[in-house]
Amino acid sequence: MQQEEFEFREEQQGVDIRKIINKALSIWPWMLLCGILTAGLTVAYLYFSVPAYKINASILIKDQDNKMSGSKDMSMLQNIGLLGGASNVDNELQIIQSYTLMNRVVRDMQLNVTYFVHKGLKDIQYYDAQLPFKVYFLAFDEELLKTDPLKYELSLNGKDKFVLKDKDKRSWSGHWGDTLTLPAGKAVFVRTAGDLVPADNQVYSFVAANTDQVTAGCAKALTSEIPNKQVSTINLTLESSIPSKGEDILNKLIEVYMQANVDDNNRIADSTTAFIDIRLLTIGEELANIEKNIQMFMQRNELANITEQSKALIDNTSEYAKSLAQQEVQLSVIEALQNHLNANINNLRIVPASMMVQDASLSNIIDKYNTLLMQRERMLLSSTEDNPMVKSLDGQLMNLRGDLVANLSSLKSSMQVAVNELRRKSGSLESKIRQVPAKEREFLDYSRQQAIKQELYLFLLQKREEAAISKSSTIANARVIDAAKSESRPFKPKKMLILAAAVLVGLLIPFALVYLKELLSTKISTRADIENGTQATILGEIGHNDVGGAIVVTKTSRSPIAEQFRMLRTNLQYLLAGDENKVIMLTSSMPGEGKSFVSTNLAVVMALSGKKVALLELDLRKPRISQSLGVQAGQGFSNYAIGQANIEDILYPNQEYPGLYIMPSGPIPPNPAELLLLDRTRSMFAYLRENFDYIIVDTTPNLVTDAQLLSMHADATLYLVRVGVTHKDQLKLPEAIYREKKMPRLSLVVNDVNYKKYAGYYGGSGYGYGYGYYGEEADQPKKWWKGRKKEMA
């Protein structure tokens, strides 16, 4: 159970807010510096960034009878899920955001020419009234501009002249109103007037870009949406760096869209008018020939008037002639429509208006055919011919074309029967006409032909006027609800938000780097690293040695590190309960973790408490204690082990700390481990137990077996780990010793805890080591400003 708790200890830990705060406080100068740096860079970015405004407009799409939506084919496609039942508003939404309309706006407004004025450290884009001049390109070299936009600088030279330069230092000069041939194309330079005209010494620049690229950029900046399916309105939004320019672009787009809609609707009237004009030309020529024949007949026969008999005959036959003329006109129109359809059998074209044919079913078919054809052409603005909706319309148009041809043939047959019947009834008058003298009979034939042609001509003129009236009354199927209007403030960049985010990022960068460094570090840096690596108890923690020297504990010292050694002494009294427990062994995982330093100061702090302490330098491979304490001894443990000295000869009292005795290691032997196994070593520890209160053994790291050999004589083991030196993987060694109980009463001592460098080591607790100094300030390093104050006093 204990092992399972250890394995999941790290998972059970939560986020330690106090640790994070302490870590941030330790690096606050770097955080402040990075925050100021990122804030400065952000201010520079915001200075050069171009603000963007949102321009909004909305239009209403008028409801129309969408005949194609109710068709059988479209319903079938919708039922199987190929179509979503697109409404007229959805189609208009695709049309208004099409590339074709935006390209027309760019070309009409010449949006591929932008103007700039250099102010401060950046170029500011100007538009219309802000500019003292305008450049109108008569032609563009689109292929050249496709590679790279061309930039020109223009300097005003008085009121009448200007000088133009490009990036290649080529120059042109001219007067206002001149046409210059530039690499980008021919351009006319016009001087404008107004109160906003800057000083003449100002340098301007303008950039000519490729039309298609500018169109793509404008189309990307445009968004359109339908608020919901219950309304037939479209909301338009355009992003622009200049509010007035964006408003003009959006208003122009709406204008182009509405004009395109009107032009589409007028195509039917134009087609009808063109058809009538052709027929009028033919009938007019025939009527002129008949009238010319009548004139020549009367002049040749010197006739001024016909007889009363002829007049009566003409009056009697006028009703038949009028009906026959009307029928023949209708028959002529039907034949013309048949010729029109047969001439364009492979090409979908508008059929002339059905008002020319007095047949309701045929008129409905023609109207439906033209409506579907217009919907198909408008759909092709935003779709291809492979679109299911377009293919469905193609099928419907072919079916309607077949119905139209069949109805025309049927109507022509019935119309021919009516004409023949009228001609038969008119035949009864032929006998009477034959009784009229030959000259009068000939005149009667001319008059009858004239009446028929006049009736047909007047009918065509009437229909032509109706078509003209229909065209003049054509309006767009959309109405502007709200004209383009810019928002008062730019929507980006959000300066305060970006600045706040930049400062926050700047503050977090040092913290993130420190955290990343600790995350990637293989050495221990926090108490949690130790606790996650081993179950052994941490008996004490020793801070960084800022005092200097091998001994940091004195009778009067009140430094934090001295207090930490005193706390370690107190904790050892609980660990070594009983008079028989006296031997304390210190070891570690590797050299350089501070065993000699801790052993020496632990022995000193125990001697200061009035105890008799023996400090044994049993690191026979790299002894350091005697040298750091200045013990000049010729003999040590190695001499005693081989019988060259007595134990009393190798115990050297320390003059500065009464009660402290030091046993040097002596000459470095070739076989340290074998010396530790001798009986004289066991006898030495028995003697020390009888004559000393505490025996502190400084031994080797666990890289060799010396420490494990000496552990049989120890009552407690202090295992040294050093912050920033001991590797995390090396904690597996004391953990294995602790679990297998290879060394008695193993506890950990954490050495060299730097509270400034390793902020948050304690997770924010600090264990009271930040309370300052007691009493005397002899051990506290003096600050430079304190010395300065004394000098000034």
TrEMBL record:
One of its GO terms (cellular component) is plasma membrane. GO terms for molecular function: ATP binding; non-membrane spanning protein tyrosine kinase activity. Residues 582-710 form the AAA domain. Pfam families: AAA_31 (PF13614), GNVR (PF13807), Wzz (PF02706). Residues 440-518 form the Tyrosine-protein kinase G-rich domain. Its EC number is 2.7.10.2. Gene3D superfamilies: P-loop containing nucleotide triphosphate hydrolases. It is found in: Cell inner membrane. It is a multi-pass membrane protein. It comes from the Bacteria. The chain crosses the membrane at residues 27-48, 496-516. The keyword Translocase does not apply. Residues 15-108 form the Polysaccharide chain length determinant N-terminal domain. Keywords: ATP-binding, Cell inner membrane, Cell membrane, Kinase, Membrane, Nucleotide-binding, Transferase, Transmembrane, Transmembrane helix, Tyrosine-protein kinase. It catalyses: L-tyrosyl-[protein] + ATP = O-phospho-L-tyrosyl-[protein] + ADP + H(+). Its main location: membrane. This is non-specific protein-tyrosine kinase. It comes from Taibaiella chishuiensis. The lineage of its organism: Bacteria, Pseudomonadati, Bacteroidota, Chitinophagia, Chitinophagales.
